[in-house]
Amino acid sequence: MNTLTQQVIAQIQAHASSNTVIAILGVGALFGLGRVSVLVEKIKDHVPGRLLVFFPGEYQAETHSYRLLDARDGWNYLAIPLQAAI
User: Fold this and answer.
1) Would you give per-residue pLDDT tens digits along the chain (86 residues)?
2) What pTM does this model have?
3) In the chain, what are the domain boundaries?
4) Three-state secondary structure along 30-59?
């Protein structure tokens, strides 16, 4: 996880400004190897603009919690869900 974190930070430092939205896609690949919350915690101070994580899981509105591929609940990092209007 440390190598991944270092690579993400290097890309952020090389390409981001305060007007940049950093989008992370494919965090489902971390399932079983590491936690998305750990990655976000380690890179958050290096993001000069906004951070968008495409989260392959579900948002539970009644408890305001997220479940990555149904693995665990209770990850409530400062997130706002973007939900499809039905």
Assistant:
1) 899 999 999 999 999 999 999 999 988 888 778 888 899 999 999 999 999 888 777 777 787 677 666 655 554 455 666 666 76
2) 0.68
3) 2-68
4) HCCCCCHHHHHHHHHHHCCCEEEECCCEEE
